[in-house]
Structure to design on (126 residues):
């Protein structure tokens, strides 16, 4: 999935907005500026209004957010597996005059969840 942002938008502004959107959700997100790419994992539809409100309540109460897998092979359950894994790459100066945002589905089995995430991301970034 990909979309292009307006030509007048600078890459630094896009990176700030992208990080702001994803860091405000209950998911794991890591962006590497040197390669203009980030990878994230979500345990479900954490961008819905209900999930965002619950996450804000938990953060206000001092409870930690999503921590993902512990890394121990013995403790891995189906429930600990992220429901969605994704990669986001920012491309600029190619065929389009703006910044192109490419989203790639890395993990999970629910295509509707991925499509919902892409729709939310496009709406928040535009």
């Amino acid at each position: 999935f990909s979309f292009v942002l307006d030509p007048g938008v600078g890459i630094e502004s896009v990176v700030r907005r992208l990080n702001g959107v994803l860091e405000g959700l209950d998911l794991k997100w890591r962006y590497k500026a040197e390669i203009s790419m980030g990878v994230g994992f979500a345990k479900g539809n954490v961008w819905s209004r209900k999930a965002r409100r619950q996450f804000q309540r938990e953060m206000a109460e001092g409870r930690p957010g999503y921590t993902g897998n512990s890394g121990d092979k013995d403790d891995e359950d189906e429930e600990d597996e992220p429901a969605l894994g994704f990669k986001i790459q920012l491309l600029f100066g190619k065929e389009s005059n703006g910044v192109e945002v490419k989203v790639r589905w890395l993990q999970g089995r629910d295509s509707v969840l991925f499509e919902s995430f892409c729709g939310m991301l496009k709406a928040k970034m535009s």
In short: The helical segments are 11-23, 49-60, 111-125.
